[in-house]
């Protein structure tokens, strides 16, 4: 097994909070956040309480979700600047949450977009 495959399987076994922390660090490093899209737009998930857009730290981890009912979906790269300038406010306007780095058996942490944005923004640049 390659190091990359091993690291992905290790990521799948992290706790939801561990995947959240990993995703924040990856987005800071790569300046990109990933979701899935099909011909109708972004994939949406629904919990008992919230409508969510799932987001991942890499194309590879997003693609792992594209099976079964999602097999027609393709990873969509969102530049960090676009996420912060358009997606956060747009998702909040639509009352949408982020499912952070879901894996097949676990939806992961579900948080409002501003919370992810706060974790991605250096404290000195925070607008509060």
UniProtKB/TrEMBL annotation:
Domain of life (superkingdom): Bacteria
One family name in Pfam for this protein: DUF2750
Official protein name in the record: DUF2750 domain-containing protein
């Amino acid at each position: 097994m390659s190091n990359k495959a091993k690291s992905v399987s290790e990521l799948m076994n992290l706790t939801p909070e561990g995947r959240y922390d990993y995703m924040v660090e990856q987005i800071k490093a790569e300046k990109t956040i990933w979701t899935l899209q099909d011909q109708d737009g972004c994939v949406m998930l629904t919990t008992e309480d919230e409508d969510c857009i799932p987001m991942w730290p890499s194309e590879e981890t997003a693609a792992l979700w594209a099976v079964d009912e999602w097999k027609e979906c393709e990873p969509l790269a969102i530049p960090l600047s676009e996420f912060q300038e358009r997606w956060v406010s747009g998702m909040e306007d639509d009352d949408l949450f982020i499912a952070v780095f879901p894996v097949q058996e676990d939806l992961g942490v579900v948080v409002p977009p501003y919370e992810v944005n706060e974790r991605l923004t250096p404290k000195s640049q925070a607008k509060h």
